[in-house]
Structure formats: structure tokens, C-alpha cells
Write a structure and sequence with these properties.
The chain is α/β, with parallel strands linked by helices. It folds into 2 domains: about 190 residues, Glycogen Phosphorylase B (Rossmann fold); about 150 residues, 3-Layer(aba) Sandwich (Rossmann fold), CATH 3.40.50.2000. It is built from 16 helices and 15 strands. Helix 13 links the parallel strand 13 and strand 14. The longest helix has 19 residues. The radius of gyration is 20 Å and the shape is globular. The mean pLDDT is about 90.
């Protein structure tokens, strides 16, 4: 089996599945996994630290694609992935999520008649201006194994005529990122010193418990960063919120680049910008935040699992379950609406119970079992 990854959320997901493959291989090797890193994320803080921290094996192939336009990046991946697949001749290719690495892996495999396993299949925002929506649509329609994180994802596929049948396996296996958060959150508490380093949590005198007094923000999607008006509007909101509580923003390279282009960095005195952080540090920042403001799909879910209120800086989300549950509020990109959403969170008590809509933390095991069953 060849696994293709290229971006930090995929490293997290692949680590969970790879760990299960190693478990199944104890005593008798059943799956040989060959790891291909496209190089879509190539900075150490976006790449190397994740491999090290998640204990992912070193990639068997690093394609070194780097950044570029969607066409250039995907084209280079297609050419380089094809050479790997022709050499290795895998029985199945596994891809994750909705990046250009996902699409390139799926397209190349389909052209070579190699079955595709798509982890996190069936997600839909129904906004085709998003590159991610195009990537996930095409990948799903090319895949043989569609491993869905929720029942809603299975329904979405069914509407498009993709169902569990003889030539296709469509299963709600749960969310592999939930597997990861259960595994790594306790490790993060022991190993991460990010809260102390940034002096983010106060101690109450009586209980000596940490009290969250900061908001955590993440911002990276092209729909938010590539529009000067939308980026300025979101940053104005974060700056306004920062007047009363600290706002911590780990700065994604794309966001940093666009902020420099638009000359915004010097105008935002109430936002604390920090470098991108490792997975364990991010879990600690999320877990101890007063609330999270994000345009990331993965962070929306992590907020839900960690019981931290979330404001999503998008007009729609593929993770509709987090909104329906009451833990997530869509605010879009307008300053006033974002500030109002945060004020609403201050007055609102989040639901007491979390719906078990993302499985029980055993998605990776289920994926490996289904693959083994299919190739016996």
C-alpha cells in the first residue's frame, strides 16, 4: 500500500492509521506501507516537527514539490507520483482529506487503474469556489474505498450516487482525527510548555486551576487570505476582540505573506502573532483557550472534542455537525458579525453533552480491518 500525504492535517491522520498498521503487523506482517510525502508543506514548522512529534516513519519518497499555483503544484505531483506508483506497483493507494496532494494521488492512481482509499470521504461544503471542495468531489468519485467520518458524509455520497456496493466500499468508520486527539492530548499535557512559554494561563488562588484568559485564532484558507477586504475585515475583528482578551494567532506562511503584501502587520497591536506551532503545542493552546476562532476544518472538530466554544470564520462548513450541536457558530468574514459571535459566546453556556457523531476513537482500526478483509 502507498500512502500519500503532503500537509500537516494529513500527517496527523496518517499517523493514526500507520500506528494501527504497525499493531496489525505485530507477529505477522500483513500490510507493507510505503509513505510518499509530496512536499506540499515543506517548512520545518509545518512539516518536519510533525513527523518527529507524531513519530511517523521517515517518508520513503519525498517529492519536494513545494508551493505554486494549483495547476503547477498539482501537475508536478502528478508526474512525480506516477513514477513512484509505476515503480512500487501497490495494490491500493491511500489519500487523506482534500488538498492538492489528495487530488494528485487520486488522479494518478485512477489513470494507472490502482484502487484508491479515501480517508475523510463524503465531506461537502457545497461551495465550489473552494479548491478543497473540488478536490474532495473528484477524489470521492474516483475512489474504491470511501472511509467516511460521519453518517452525514455517507448521506452526501449517496445523493451523488456513491453507495456501498460490490465495486465500492462506503463505510462510516468515524474520524481518524478523534483517534489522534485521544492518543496525543495526554501526551501534550506532559510534554508541551507552550502555555508557560507564552504566559497564557492564570492560576486561581484557591483551586490553583488554570483559567483561560485568551482566544486562539487560526487563519489560512485562500478564501480569507487572498481577498484583501476579507482578510482586513477578519483581522480587524480579532484586533477588536484583543482589546479585552489576548488573541493568539499562530501565523500560517500564506497568511503572513499576504499580510506583508497588504501592509497589515504594523496595524494590529492587539493580536499576538506567533510562529506556527507543533501538534502537541496546538492541542494545549486549543484545550486551554476561552474560545477558538478559525477557518480550519480540523480545528473546528478539535474544539468540539475538547469542549471549547468555536467561531468559524467562513460562510459555510463541511462539519455541519459541530454547528448543530451548539459548539460552533458560523460568523463569516465580516468584522461586526465576528465580534457579535464572540460576544454571544460570552453569554451562552455550551451544551453539557457532546453528541458521539465522530465515532468512538477507533476509526483507524476499522479502516485497516476493512482493507485487510478486502484483500484476503
Amino acid at each position: 500500500m502507498v500512502t500519500i500525504v503532503g500537509a500537516r492535517p494529513q500527517f496527523i491522520k496518517a499517523a493514526a492509521v500507520s500506528r494501527q498498521i504497525q499493531e496489525f503487523n505485530k507477529g505477522k506482517k500483513q500490510i507493507e506501507e510505503i509513505l510518499v510525502h509530496t512536499g506540499q508543506h515543506y517548512d520545518y514548522l509545518m512539516d518536519g516537527v510533525f513527523f518527529k512529534e507524531l513519530r511517523l516513519p521517515e517518508a520513503d519518497y519525498h517529492l519536494g514539490v513545494g508551493s505554486g499555483s494549483h495547476a503547477k503544484q498539482t501537475g508536478m505531483m502528478l508526474e512525480r507520483i506516477e513514477a513512484v506508483l509505476q515503480k512500487e506497483k501497490p495494490e491500493v493507494v491511500m489519500v487523506y482529506g482534500d488538498t492538492n496532494s489528495t487530488l494528485a494521488g487520486a488522479l494518478t492512481s485512477a489513470k494507472l487503474n490502482i484502487p484508491i482509499a479515501h480517508v475523510e470521504a463524503g465531506l461537502r461544503s457545497y461551495n465550489r469556489t473552494m479548491p478543497e471542495e473540488i478536490n474532495r468531489l473528484l477524489t470521492d468519485h474516483l475512489s474504491t474505498f470511501l472511509f467516511c467520518p460521519t453518517t452525514q458524509a455517507v448521506r452526501n455520497l449517496s445523493k451523488e450516487g456513491i453507495r456501498d456496493e460490490r465495486r465500492r466500499i462506503v463505510k462510516n468508520v468515524g474520524d481518524v482525527m478523534y483517534d489522534s486527539i485521544l492518543y496525543y492530548s495526554k501526551i501534550a499535557e506532559k510534554r508541551s510548555a507552550i502555555l508557560e512559554d507564552l504566559n497564557l494561563c492564570l492560576l486561581t488562588p484557591r483551586s490553583k486551576l488554570r483559567t483561560p484568559h485568551y482566544y486562539l485564532a487560526t487563519l489560512h484558507r485562500a478564501e480569507n487570505t487572498d481577498s484583501p477586504q476579507r482578510l482586513k475585515s477578519i483581522l480587524r475583528a480579532l484586533n477588536e476582540i484583543g482589546k479585552s482578551h489576548s488573541v493568539i494567532l499562530p501565523l500560517h506562511p500564506r497568511t503572513k505573506k499576504m499580510m506583508k503584501n497588504y501592509r497589515l502587520l504594523s496595524k494590529l497591536k492587539n493580536i499576538k502573532f506567533i510562529e506556527p506551532v507543533s501538534y502537541l503545542n496546538m492541542l494545549q493552546l486549543e484545550k486551554n483557550a476561552k474560545a477558538i476562532l478559525t477557518d480550519s476544518g480540523g480545528v473546528q472538530k478539535e474544539a468540539f472534542w475538547l469542549r471549547v466554544p468555536c467561531v468559524t470564520l467562513r460562510d459555510e462548513t463541511e462539519w455541519v455537525e459541530t454547528v448543530k450541536s451548539g459548539w460552533n457558530e458560523l460568523a463569516g468574514g465580516k468584522t461586526k458579525k465576528i465580534v457579535l459571535a464572540v460576544n454571544h459566546l460570552e453569554r451562552k453556556r455550551p451544551p453539557e453533552r457532546r453528541m458521539k457523531i465522530f465515532g468512538k476513537g477507533k476509526a483507524s482500526k476499522r479502516i485497516v480491518e476493512l482493507l485487510l478483509k478486502s484483500y484476503k
